[in-house]
Write a structure and sequence with these properties.
The structure is a single chain. This protein is mainly β and 286 residues long. The chain folds into two domains: 58 residues, no CATH class; 200 residues, no CATH class. It is built from one helix and twelve strands; from the N terminus they run E-E-H-E-E-E-E-E-E-E-E-E-E. The longest helix is centred in the N-terminal third of the chain and has 34 residues. The chain starts with 13 loop residues before the first strand and ends with a strand.
């Protein structure tokens, strides 16, 4: 340190530590001149070293924290709250296996025109014994839907195993996590706008007592939100729109299956020569 004048113990240069975003900086400055003792200087030096170590350790912990956070993914913007399509999930298999029970037929297989096989009022719903089984791969648009039911003395079976899209939203013939019907601009407006957990479009064949009844008819199935009031069985549609969601009830779920002819008949509702409409109110995911 150099020599000191008589009676003067010495001068001490102090420094302080500041931290910035990009690191640790030491800024020397000459503090007030003070006499010091060896013990005092060692104490200050020890505190100074401890501060450096503490600051360095804090930086390491922050870095580890960021590493741990990135391990579980860091959302970009509002990405964490958007509704993702199924293929945006890294482990999406595309394989769906469902079963529907507690079936009813809208109208009857023996109805003569004119008939209403959508029956918004819920006045012509016939409980039938039967079920539907869905085993499809949404990614490959393949699989099989088989529905069976009994009405009167006749047993009916629908085999729906050819899927094809006629519109982009149908995603090749089988689609999931989309809106359809109503004012969704997807499909017709015959039914309320509903969220489809799964939907399929294509061609089916219907059998009556093991004999072909309807061959290669247009078919459509929907695993959808509940469309009917559980007490009155009414479809509350159409109604004056007050909220942007559809007229269905997201608290419930059902499976609907439509089989219809290409031939039209304006006396019926919907206006087809044939329109078979089945619904299953109990849905099991397997």
């Amino acid at each position: 340190m150099g020599k000191t004048a008589p009676g003067q113990i010495g001068r001490q240069a102090y420094c302080y530590v500041t931290t910035q975003h990009d690191g640790l900086f030491l800024h020397p400055f000459l503090n007030d001149i003070k006499p010091y003792a060896k013990g005092d200087m060692m104490t200050r030096f020890t505190k100074f070293i401890a501060l450096i170590l503490l600051t360095t350790a804090s930086g390491i912990l922050v870095s580890l924290g960021h590493a741990e956070e990135s391990k579980f993914g860091t959302p970009r913007g509002d990405e964490g709250t958007k509704i993702f399509t199924a293929p945006e999930h890294p482990f999406y298999s595309g394989e769906f296996r469902l079963k529907g029970d507690r079936a009813f037929l809208v109208g009857s297989m023996s109805d003569a025109a004119p008939w209403d096989h959508l029956d918004y009022a819920g006045k012509h719903l016939n409980t039938v014994k039967g079920s539907i089984e869905i085993e499809v791969n949404e990614r490959t648009n393949t699989g099989r839907v088989v529905a069976e039911f009994v009405e009167g003395n006749n047993r009916y079976r629908i085999v729906f195993d050819r899927f094809a899209a006629k519109a982009p939203f149908q995603d090749g013939g089988i689609a999931t996590r989309i809106y359809e019907h109503g004012d969704s601009n997807n499909g017709d407006s015959l039914y309320p706008k509903t969220w489809l957990y799964l939907g399929g479009w294509g061609t089916a064949t219907m059998y009556k007592d093991n004999q072909v009844l309807y061959k290669d008819y247009d078919a459509h199935f929907m695993v959808m939100e509940r469309s009917r009031d559980p007490k009155t069985h009414e479809v509350r549609y159409p109604v004056t729109r007050r909220l942007p969601g559809g007229e269905t009830d997201p608290a419930g779920m059902e499976i609907d299956l439509w089989v219809r002819s290409k031939k039209q008949n304006s006396n019926n509702f919907p206006p087809f020569e044939t329109f078979v409409h089945l619904c299953w109110e109990e849905v099991t995911w397997r």
